[in-house]
Amino acid sequence: MMTAILGHRASPREKCEAPLGPVRPRIGSALTVLLVVMAGCGGTSPGPGPGAGDKTGDDSQLIGRTFLSTEVKNKTLVSGTRISLSFPEKGKIAAQAGCNHLFGTVSFEGDKLAASEMGGTDMGCDEARHQQDEWVTKFLTGKPVWALSGDNLVLTGADKTEIKLTDRKVVDPDRKLVGPKWTVDSLLDGEAASSVPGGAQAYLIFADGDKVSGNTGCNTLTGTAKVGPEKITFEQIATTKKACLGDAGMLEQWVLEVLKGEVTMRIDTDRLVLGQASGKGLQLRAGY
What angle do CA 79, 80, 81 make, to 5 degrees? Predict the structure, then answer.
C-alpha cells in the first residue's frame, strides 16, 4: 500500500526504485506513494508491554494486518506523520513513516522481529522525513523485540526506542465512498506514482443515486458512477469547456483517462485508489 506529498513538480512516469539498506534522500524528486500519511502520532493509547496475554514468536496473528503508531518513546516523529507497519503475507513486511513506502522480508526469531532486504520507493520528501525513513529502516532491521496483545503491537529496540501500534481497523477505519470530497494527490502508472503538478487540484464527490461530480484540475465535471464490489463504472462524464494548458491540462487529461468505463476501486483508511486495467490510476484522499 502506498502515501502522498503535494506541491512538487514531476513527470508522472518516474520509476519506483528499490535500493537496499536505508533509503537515501533525493531532494527535489516528486515521487509519492500510496499509502498512509495522516494525522501525527499523538495519542496516549496504552499499548501492551511484555507480560500476560502477549503473543511472541508466532507471526500467524500478524499476517494480513496493518498497525498504526499511537506512541513512540525515545524518538520524536516529524509533525503530521505516524508509522504504519503491515504484514501483507507470510515472510513480507511493509512500512510507511511519512515519506517512502518501505518493504522487505521478515522472519521471527523467538521474541525478535528480523526484517531484511529492505528497499523502498525514492520520493522527493524533505530532509526530516527522509531521516525518519532511515531510522525506521534501521530500527526494523535491528531485530527489535515484539509483543502482540489483541489489537496492540509493541516493538522495542536495543536502544530502548519503543513503538506502540494499534490495528488500523481500530485506529483509522476505512471511509465511506459517498460523502467525502476525494482530492487527487497522486497519479499512478503501474508501480510508479507521482505527485499532482503544483498549482493544480482535482477532486471527486460521490453522491447517492450513482452520481459523481468534481473538478478535473481545470474544468468541473458531472456524470454517473455505478458502484459494485471493488469496482466503479463511470458513464456520461461531462465537463465544462474551459481551455486547459500546462499543469492543469496535463492533470485533466490524466483524470479523464482514468474515469472511463469500469475501474478497480479500493479504499484504505482515508485513501481511495482508482485504476484502469492499463495500470493508469489515481490516488485520492478524503476530506470534508
Answer: 95
* Residue 9 shares a structural domain with residue 127: yes
Query: Each residue of 156-211: pLDDT tens digit?
Result: 999 999 999 999 999 989 999 999 999 999 999 998 888 898 888 999 999 999 99
**Burial class of residue 46 (count of CB atoms within 10 Å of its CB; 0-12, 13-18, 19+):** exposed
Domain termination site, one of 172, 206, 223: 172
Give the structural domain span for 215: 181-287
How many residues can be counted in the chain? Answer: 288
User: Are 188 and 48 in the same domain?
Assistant: no
Please indicate, yes or no, whether residues 224 and 259 belong to a single structural domain of this protein: yes
On whether the CB atoms of residues 6 and 39 are closer than 8 A, the answer is: no
Residues 149 and 10 in one domain: yes
CA distance 166 to 154: 9
User: In CATH, what number is assigned to the domain containing residue 200?
Assistant: 2.40.128.270
Retrieve residue 21's grid coordinates. 539498506
Distance CA 207, CA 211 (A): 5
Mark whether 190 and 67 lie in a shared domain: no
Q: Tell me phi and psi for residue 285, to 5 degrees.
A: -120, 135
Paired with 154 in beta bridges are 147, 164
Q: Facing residues of 149 across strands? A: 152
Q: Is the pTM of this model over 0.85?
A: no
Residue 157, φ and ψ in degrees, nearest 5 = -85, 170
Closest CA to 14 of 25, 36, 30, 26: 30
